[in-house]
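User: what does the whole thing look like in 3D?
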Amino acid sequence: METLVACLAGFLVSMAIWLMLSGNLMRFLFGLLLLSNGVNLAILAAGRLTPGAPPLLGTSGALPPDTMANALPQALLLTAIVIGFGLFAFALALTIRAYRSFGHLEVDRMRSAEPAEDS
Amino acid sequence: MNSLILSVGARFLTGLFLLFSLFVLLRGHNSPGGGFIGGLIGAAGFVLYSFAAGVEDARRALRVDPRAIGVWGMAIAVLSGLASALAGLDPFTGLWLILADLALSTVLVFDIGVYLAVFGAILTLVFALEETV
Amino acid sequence: MLDGASDGAGRMLGYAASILAALILVSMALMVPAVVDGRPVLFALDWAPSLGISLAFMVDGLSLIFGLLISGIGSLIFLYATGYMGDHPQFGRFVLFLFAFMVSMLGLVLARDLITLFLFWELTSITSYLLIGFDHDNPRARRNALQAMLVTAGGGLALLAGFILIGTAAGGYDLAQILAGPGLQDSNLYGAILVLVLLGAFTKSAQFPFHFWLPNAMAAPTPVSAYLHSATMVKAGVYLLARLHPALGGTIAWSMALTTAGAVTAVLASVLAMRQGDLKQALAYTTLMALGTITMLLAGAHPYALTAAVTFLIIHSLYKASLFMVVGAVDHGTGTRDVGQLGGLGRAMPLTALAAVLACASMAGLPPMIGWIGKELIYAGAETMTAAPFVAAAAVAANALMFAVAGIIALRPFFGAPVATPHPPHEAPWQMLAGPVILALGGLVVGVLAQPLLGSVVGSALTGSLLQDRAAGLHLWAGFNRAFVLSLLTFTLGVMLYLMRDRFAALVDPVLRRLPSLDDGWDRLLDGLRVLAAWQTRVLQTGRLTAYLMAVFAVVALALGLTIIRTRPEIAMELPRSAFLWLTAIFTAAGAVLALNTHSRIAAIAGIGTVGIGVAVIFIYAGAPDVATTQLMVETLSAVMFAIAALRLPGITERRSPRRQMAHGVVALTTGLCVTAIILSVTASPLDRSITSYFEENSYALAHGLNIVNVVLVDFRAFDTFGELIVVLLASFGAYAVLKRKRRAGP
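Assistant: Here's the predicted 3D structure for the full assembly of 999 residues, as C-alpha cells:
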C-alpha cells in the first residue's frame, strides 16, 4: 500500500510545482499547500504504513502483540504540519500585502527589488 | 455575517470547543491529543466566535491580546524546560511527581506552554487577517 | 621645500617612520652574529592550532638579508619621501600606507609558517595597491594600481593553493620542518605544487608573461617606486623562489621554467629599457631585467649560481633604490624626467650627479663597485648551470644592454651642454639626498670590502637557508678566468651599444612595435570579464520569481533524477487491495485536479481542502490519529484564512505561453516522478526501526506516557518542539506585522 501513497505523493508534488510556477501568487499559495501535503505523505510512506495500529501503549506500558505504526515519522509529521501552516500563513500575509502595494498578483511584474535594466 | 443561528450558537460552540481542547490537551500524554491539537481546536473555537460576533467582540471575550498568550506559552515552555536544569539535569528533561493516581510533571507544563503558544499564534494571525481585509 | 614648516605634523610623521625603520634595522643587525653562527632566531604564537597553523617567524640568513634591506632602505625612503612630498595634504596617509607595506613585507620574509607567509603576501598586494594608486584622482593611477593588485593577488590565490598542497605533501605548514625534510621533488603532488608556486612567484616578481604590470606601477609617487621596485614588493617572488629552492628546486622542470622565464624577461626588459625616454620607465624595465636575472640564476643548483643570485639581489636593491631616488630628485629639481630634455645638470646638482654616477657604475658592473663582483659571479654561476651557453649568452646580452642604459642614465642628464628645463635646475633638499648618496656610496664600500662586510651574511644564506655546503667568495679579483673574459666582452658590447644607440633603436623599434601588447590584452581581458558578468547577470538574475523557482525545481528534478538513474535502486511495487484506500486516493487526486483547473477562487479553495481532508483520512487509515487530527484542524484553518483573504484578492488568472507551459510541465512531472520513485526505492530497502523501538520501549518506562507520539514531542524531543514553537510564533508575528503595517505611498 506504500506504492499507492507514493504515487499520490508524487502526483501532488507535480501539481504543486505546476501551480507554484504559474506566476500568480494566489495559485502559488495553492501550490504551497499541495506541496506540503505531498511531502507529508512522502514522509509517512517512507516510515511504512501499518493500518489500524496507532502507536499507543497498553496499560502500564505494555507493548501490543502486533507491530504498531511507526511513531517517529508521526512525530515529525505533526511538527511539519504545524510549521507548514506557519509558512502558509506568512506567505498569505505577504500576498495580501503585495496585492495592496502592486494592485495585482503577477509575480513577474513585481520588480521593486530587482528592477529590469533595459526598460 | 448576520445569521442569528450562528451568532447564538457560536457562543455555546466556542465554550464547547475550549472545553474539548482542554480535555484533549490533558489526556494527550496517554491517548491521542496533546498541546498542538488542543491549541488548534481552541483557536478554531475563537475563530468561529469571531465570525459570528466580529473580531472586536472576540478580542473582548478573550480579554488578553493573543500575542501575549503566545509569548506566555513560550515562556512557560522555557521555564518547564529549565526546571530540570535547576535540578541538575539536562534542560528539557521531564521531572515527575507521582501522587497516587495523579501524575504531575514538567512535561505537562511544557505541553500547556505548547497549547498556549499555538493558540496565541493562530489567533494573532486570524484576527489580524480579519481586521485587515 | 625646507621652509614648509607650516605643515610640520606630516613631516614629523615621516621622520618618526624613518627612525622607527632605522630601529628595526638596528634590531635586525643585532641578530646578525647569531644567524651567521648558524642559529636562526625563531618565535611563534599559536594561531589556529587545530589546522596546524601558527603565527610563526624565523630569522635565518635569507630572511635576514631581506629584513636588513627592507628596513634599511625603508628608513631612507621615509626620509626621502618627507623631502619629496612632505607638504602633500595627505602625506600622513601616505606614511601610514608605506609603513603598513613595510611591515607586511617584513612579515612576508620573516614568516616561518606558510599560511602566515601567504597572509603577508596578500597584505603586500593590498598595501601596494593603496600606494600605487595613491594619486587617486588620476584614473590612470587607479587603473594601474588595480592591475598590479589583480595580477599579484591572482597569483597569490594560486600560491595559496600551492601552499596547501605543500602542507599536504609535507605534512605541515612549518617552513623550518619542510625545508629540513627530504624535499618535495619526489612527491606526486610536485607538478601541481610547482605550477602553482611559480604562478605566484612569477606574477609577484613580474616575470614574462606577467611583466606588464610593473612598468605601469610607475604611476606611483617616486618614493613608492623606489621602495617597491628595488628591495621589496617585486623581490617577494624572488624571495619565495629562493626560500623554497631546497624543497622544490633541482629538478628539470624547475630549472627549465626558471631559466626560460628569467632569460626572456631579462633580455626583453633590457631591450625595452634602452628605448624608454622617461628615466623612470627606463628604471622600471631595468628592474625587470634584474628580476629576470635572479630568477634565471635560481634555476641553478650550484653554490656559484645561488651565491650570484643572492649577491645580485643585494646589489640591485642598493643601486636601484638609489637611482629611483635620483630620478625623483631630477624630476623635482627640473620638472621633467624625459632624458631628451635634460643635460648638463651636474653643475647645478652635484650630489645628485655623484649618486647617479656611482649607482650607475654599480649597475653597469664596473670595478670597484659591488656590481662588478655581482656580474663576475653571474658569469661564474652561469657556467655551472644546465643550459650554460644559453644562460651565459642571455646574461651577456642583458648586462651589455644594462651597461648602455646605465650610460644613458648617468651621462646624458648630468653631463654635456646644459639644456633648458621646465624650471631652472636646483639641488634637492638634504632629506632627498641622504638616501641616494648613502646607498650609492654603500655600493662602493661593499664593493671594496665585499668579503668582510657581506661574505658572512651571504654565506649564512647559502648554507643556512639554501642548504648549500658552501658559498662562493666575493672578490674584486677572482683571477683571469672565463667570467673575466665575459665581463670584458660585456663592456665592449655595452660601449658599442651606447655609442650606436640610435642605430640600435632603428633596428629594434619596428620589431618591438609588432610585438603583441600584453597590456592591451589585459584591458581586453577585463572588458571581457565585465561583459561576461553583465551577461550572466542578465541570464541568471532575471528578476522574475518564476524563473528562480524554475531553476530551483529544475535542479531538484535533475539531482533526484540523476541519482536515481545512476544508482538504479530497487523499487517495491505492491498495489493495495483495499478499496477504501483507492477511493481516498482518487478523491484526493480529484481535489488537486479541481484546484488546478478552476478559475473560481472558492472552487480552488474547496479543491485544496479536499486534498487536505483526503490526506487526513490516509493518516487515520495509517494509524496516526494525532497527525490526522492536526491535519484536519490545520486544513480547516487554512481554508478559513484563504476564504477571508479571497474576499479581497482578485480572481486567478494565468497567462503562460505554450512554450513555458511545456517547460514547466516537464519539470513538474519529472520532480513528481522522482519523488514517487524515491519513496518506492526507500520502501524497497529494509526499515531501520531502532529509534522507533527505543521510543516504544521507553515511552512508559522513562516518560510515563502511553501516547508515544506525544511523548516524543514533549519529552524525548522537547527541545525540537520548543524550536518549532518559536518558528510558529515568529511566523504569526511576522504576518501580523506585514498585515498591520500602515500603507506607504507608492509600491
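In plain terms: Chain C touches chain A through 107 residues (CB under 8 Å). The beta strands of chain C are 41-48, 53-59.
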